[in-house]
Structures are given as C-alpha cells and as structure tokens.
C-alpha cells in the first residue's frame, strides 16, 4: 500500500513538473513573439514617418517644377509625343532587349486603349477622375466636341498603357529596365508587375508600363 502511494505521488510530481515546464515554454514563446511584434511595429512606424517625409518632399519638388516654366518645358520634352513616337513604342522598347546578356524574350506586346486623367471640379470632393477616350466625339480638327478653351492651367493627361509578357533571366530582367533608363525613353512608370521564378535563375511574367502623352485632349 505504501509503495502504491509513493508511486502515485511520484507520478503526480512528474506531471506537475512537466506541466510547469510546458507552461514556462509557452510563456517564453509568447514573450518572444510579443517582442518581435513590438519591434515590427517600431519599424513600421519609422517607415511610415519616412514615407510621410518623402511625400512632403515630393510635393515641394512638384510645386517647384510647376512654378518654373523652364523645368516644365524640360519635363514636357520627356513625355511621349503623339503620332510617330506613340506608333514606335514597340521598337523603342524592344531595342532595350538587344544587349541583355541572357536574352530578353517578349512573348506578347499589347498597347491598351488610352485613358484620361483629369481634375474634376466636383462639388462634393475635388478628386482626379478617369475618362475613357474611346467614345469621345471629335470635330473636323480632331478635337473633342465642346472642348474648353485652354487657360494655361493643368487639365489632365492622356495615358497610354503598354502590357508586355516576357521570359528571361533575373540578371537580364534588371538589364532591360536599366536599358530603358539609359536609352532616355519617354517618361514612364511601372503600373504593375507580375513575375514568377521558373527555376533558380529564369523568370517570366507581365509588366504594364504607362506613358503620359505630351499633348493632352482638353475636355
């Protein structure tokens, strides 16, 4: 009987020790996770503050450009010219693939229908709007019917999106965009990028690049 009681007490003691160890392990893990979350929060707050500073800096730079006619003229010269340059977009972009060390294969090249970004003087909120140019009625001079007289203020911009499906190496992918910069292509911005690794080095995907036109349709 005494041995049985001793065995039970030992079992209970072992169970308590194991429970204590497990709870201590859970507590340590929880504290570690909490410290990591705190560190991530501090990092995010710092990044958010830096983003706000960058935004304010860009706003000041934008105002400086808009207030300087010479800078505006230089900026306009970099925009895509309607007509020949617009039609030559494919050649301008494919030229950037020629000296890619591992080759840059363009599997498809699509120019999307242009869209128009303009300032809308909405009574409720003054927010930029997007206007589809597909169904705009034009007069004999190619201008929209009912166009307003240009008073010199910014009316908006016509944007030409280009979608490219590609296959290449990661190295040549970087070289392609470096070439786009070095060849002084018209001002552009990467609207979206979808890229997948085929293996450790090869990639394929699609990229949409937006080109603002130098001359805009005044609505």
Task: Report on this structure.
The chain has helices at residues 2-66, 69-77, 84-87, 89-94, 170-182; strands spanning 104-111, 115-119, 128-132, 156-169, 189-197, 202-212. It has 219 residues and is α+β, with helices and mostly antiparallel strands. Strands 1, 2, 3, 4, 5 and 6 form a six-stranded antiparallel beta sheet that branches. A hairpin with a 4-residue loop joins strand 5 (189-197) and strand 6. The longest helix has 65 residues, at 2-66. It is elongated and about 100 Å long.
Quick recap of the structure?
The protein is 44% helix and 24% strand. The chain has five helices and six strands; from the N terminus they run ααααββββαββ.
Features:
alpha+beta, 24% strand, 219 residues, Alpha-Beta Plaits, six-stranded antiparallel β-sheet, 5 helices, 2 domains, 6 strands
What percentage of residues falls in helices of 4 or more residues?
Answer: 40-55%
Q: Which structural class is indicated by helix and strand composition?
A: alpha+beta
Largest β-sheet summary = 6 strands, antiparallel
Number of domains: 2
CATH fold description of the largest domain: Alpha-Beta Plaits
**H/E topology pattern:** HHHHEEEEHEE
CATH architecture of the largest domain: 2-Layer Sandwich
Q: How far apart lie the N and C ends?
A: 100 Å
For the record, what CATH class of the largest domain applies?
Alpha Beta
């Amino acid at each position: 009987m005494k041995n049985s009681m001793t065995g039970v007490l030992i079992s209970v003691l072992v169970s308590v020790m194991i429970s204590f160890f497990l709870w201590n392990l859970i507590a340590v893990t929880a504290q570690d996770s909490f410290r990591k979350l705190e560190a991530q929060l501090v990092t995010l707050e710092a990044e958010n503050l830096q983003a706000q500073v960058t935004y304010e800096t860009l706003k000041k730079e934008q105002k400086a450009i808009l207030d300087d006619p010479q800078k505006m003229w230089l900026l306009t010269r970099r925009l895509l010219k309607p007509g020949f340059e617009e039609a030559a977009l494919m050649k301008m972009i494919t030229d950037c693939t020629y000296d890619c060390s591992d080759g840059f294969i363009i599997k498809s090249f699509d120019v999307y229908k242009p869209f128009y970004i303009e300032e809308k003087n909405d009574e409720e909120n003054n927010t930029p709007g997007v206007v589809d140019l597909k169904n705009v009625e034009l007069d004999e001079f190619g201008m929209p019917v009912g166009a307003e007289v240009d008073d010199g203020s910014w009316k908006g911009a016509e944007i030409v999106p280009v979608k490219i499906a590609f296959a290449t190496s990661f190295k040549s992918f970087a070289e392609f965009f470096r070439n786009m910069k070095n060849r002084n292509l018209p001002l552009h911005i990467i609207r979206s990028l979808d890229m997948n690794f085929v293996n450790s080095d090869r990639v394929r995907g699609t990229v949409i690049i937006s080109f603002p036109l130098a001359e805009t349709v005044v609505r």
